[in-house]
Amino acid sequence: MGYAEFSLSGSEGIFMSKIKSVNDFVIKFANVNGSGSASANQMFAKGVFRSGIPVSPKNIFPSNIQGLPTWFEVRVNEKGYLGRREGIDIFVAMNPQSYAKDVAELKENGYLIYDSSWKRDFGREDINILEIPLTELCVQEFTNPKQRLLFKNLGYVGLLASILEMDKEVYISLIEEQFKGKEKLIEPNVKALNIGYNYAEENFKDFCQIKVEKSDKTDGLILTSGNDAAGLGCVYGGATVCAWYPITPSTSLAESYSKYCEKLRVEIGTDKNKFAFIQAEDELAAMGMTIGANWNGARAFTATSGPGVSLMSEFIGLAYFAEVPTVLFNVQRGGPSTGMPTRTQQSDILCSAYASHGDTKHVLLIPSDPKECFDFAVEAFNLADRLQTPVIVLLDLDLGMNDWSTPEFEWDDETSFDRGKVLSKEDLDGIERFGRYLDVDGDGIPYRTYPGTHPEKGAYFTRGTSHDEYAGYTEDGVKNAEMLSRLVKKFQTASSLVPAPVFNQEKSTSSMGIIYFGSTDCSMQEALDILEEQNVKIDAMRIRAFPFNLEVWEFIEDHDLLFIVEQNRDGQMRTLIMAEGGIIPDKLVSILCFDGQPITAEHITNKINAHLSGKPTPAIAAS
Questions:
Q1: Domain covering 3-211 in this structure, CATH number
Q2: Mean pLDDT, all residues of the chain
Q3: pTM: predicted TM-score of the whole model, two decimal places
């Protein structure tokens, strides 16, 4: 952990306190949208990761036009605590528009780096200021105005490499990799890196007491985003069709699938790709295409966010009632309505669980890191085929769009897909009458066929209207009730097939418990360690799927008081637990964050301690 030390700073010879830490700090960049800074900031994070220290970079960008403020935050932590942490240790302030806000976020004794081509008084005497005339230096070295703007970003990366005492060669290697095939761009980019590095070597030697020392804590880890991992998982899961409509923050998931298909889904012996990637005219059409492809025997999916789920709801209900396998990735963002398209929330729990009108319940998979995004993408297709129903994978913007230090993905080439209860021509030959919606095995899951399987048997009319066991139209209310009841039985079967919860203890050790899910996991692990240091005994369970299986209900039964941690205003997971299990409200205490930023360990522990001390815990966002 960081601490402050006193040292001589500045030409005036006054003593200034400085934060000192090794491989544990938060750095934030303030830039202008459209300035090309994101790639440089990402390069800084990759350089730390390649030095062996886990990182968690977060791109905080506006949903508007070029020229407005944007931020990029990186947490560096050798212990692997990668949840957002409040308080900034180093601020690289490159946007005068946001100076006041940026400087206010900087911790006492922290470090402020800014472009001193235009001198500025920041009004704080409790921070350490590093002035570098980046614009002037770039004007001296480069004649192209656009290059001057872009290379200024690499200049401050070089400065950081120097003051943090990092190996500059790490960044040179990253530049060479980025511009492989465009070798003429390597030299000017390295030159820009050296502008900042050399200036810092001459002017800021030993000034900063925060350091990056090489470690081995990233062995066995990769740095990737949840969307990229899920897109790759769809390829490995056998998906051959993606029908989608662009919407932040899910677009990169579909694009990732296409990118990997171009490389991996190629017909043997030819250069021909074997996949369909279709941009529909809207979200409703995308879901319709996905249902049609699945009905025809392909593995197909779509990706969207909350507003898209709203538009897709009618077709989601069709897939549920006609029992057509369907996979949907919902990368959640701030809502309601258009809301905050570039901020994160977990606010689509209820609309996804009960999507569409009438009595519907859908299978949800809730990954917590990119590795689970990959694994759950594969599993989603198996479950959709096995259960013949929509399966919705719930990510959020923080998990989906930002990079994470995550375990390497694993794949067994002997893996086979579970296509579920699909009858062949030979199977149909042995059946007197095929009943598409007959519950033959008592698990609520009927048998189905692919179109064209048999010349005489196995054909049926897929409909969203009420139907009997043989897919015949009916308005018999009793028969319709029987169909709806069978779907409930299928949902109960699903509870034994979905991923089980993860516990932070082998058995219950306390009368109190915490329930959490999704990307909250990273902050929760740190919060649990803090609570243990504070001698607060509490058990924890991470929910990974809906319907809830027996282990979830046993955990709830075993504890007298449960904190439900979620990133939405209304406590939607708490509502879902009460609705599905008849749990009394007083047993479940909400810990909520809905300010668009990822929840912090500090926020979680403060809310728990406030409740235990008898103080009110209003449902408000983190401060």
A1: 3.40.920.10
A2: 94
A3: 0.95
The CATH architecture annotation of domain 502-612 reads: 3-Layer(aba) Sandwich (3.40)
d(CA 369, CA 366): 10
Residues of the chain with CATH 3.40.50.920: 502-612
Q: Would you state the structure tokens that stand for residue 619, as one six-digit string?
A: 């449902």
Gap between the Cα atoms of 154 and 363, Å rounded: 46
- In the block, tokens 């006492």 appear at 108
Please report the pLDDT score of residue 14 as a whole number.
Answer: 46
Assigned architecture for domain 224-407? 3-Layer(aba) Sandwich (3.40)
User: Sign (positive/negative) of CA torsion 216, 222, 226, 227?
Assistant: positive
Q: Which two tokens stand for residue 217?
A: 């804590």
SS percent in the chain: helix, strand, coil, step 5: 40, 20, 40
| Residue 12 in tokens | 């005036």
Whole-number Cα distances in Å, 467 to 360, 431, 440? 16, 21, 17
Amino acid at site 423: L
Residue 62's pLDDT band (boundaries 50, 70, 90)? confident
Where in the chain is CATH 3.40.50.970? 224-407
Rounded Cα–Cα distance for residues 384 and 571 (Å) = 28
Helix axes 168-178 and 186-203, enclosed angle (nearest 10): 160
